[in-house]
Every structure is written in C-alpha cells, then in structure tokens.
Write a structure and sequence with these properties.
This protein has 90 residues and is α+β, with helices and mostly antiparallel strands. The protein has two helices and six strands. The termini are far apart.
Length: 90
C-alpha cells in the first residue's frame, strides 16, 4: 500500500483521521505491515500483506490478526477480543 493512499483513509466507524505505525515496507517503500489506530474510538486496523483490514467489528477475525499484533508488540485489550477491537501496548 502506498503512503499516499494510506493518508486518505479514515476510521470507517467515526470518520476520524487515523494514525499509522509502519512496521515493514518493501523496496519501493510501499507499506507491507502496519497498524492504523483511531484516537477517537480507539479501534485498530492492521495492514497485512499491504492490505488494510477495515471490516466492521462483527466481521473481524481476531485469530487472524493476533499473530501480527504480537509480532510487533501489541495485544488486544485484556488479551481477548472485544466488540470494539481496542488496542493496548504490551
């Protein structure tokens, strides 16, 4: 995902501007792994294989996102999925 594209994304829930942490890029400086967070509603949206995962809460698959979050030192609130997919630092 190109940085210019990432800059245009907003939180799908409340339309707030997202913060982006980039964990891995390719040789063209495209984002391969990262994490969007919404400072307003506290939801997170991972970037996996260059694709932002911004599905509604009820369609999110915690078990698929957890390994990437753990790899970069994050966890879901209290270690279990929550309806709002809140993020905490380890």
């Amino acid at each position: 995902m190109k940085k210019s594209f990432a800059d245009k994304l907003v939180c799908p829930v409340d339309k707030s501007e997202l913060k982006l942490q980039v964990f891995a890029t390719n040789t063209d400086q495209e984002i391969i792994e990262g994490l969007f967070t919404c400072p307003t509603c506290k939801r997170y949206y991972p970037v996996i294989y260059g694709l932002p995962i911004m599905s509604p809460d009820e369609y999110r698959q915690f078990h698929l996102e957890q390994p990437m979050l753990e790899k970069w030192g994050h966890q879901i609130s209290n270690g279990t999925p929550t309806p709002k997919f809140l993020l905490e630092d380890k």
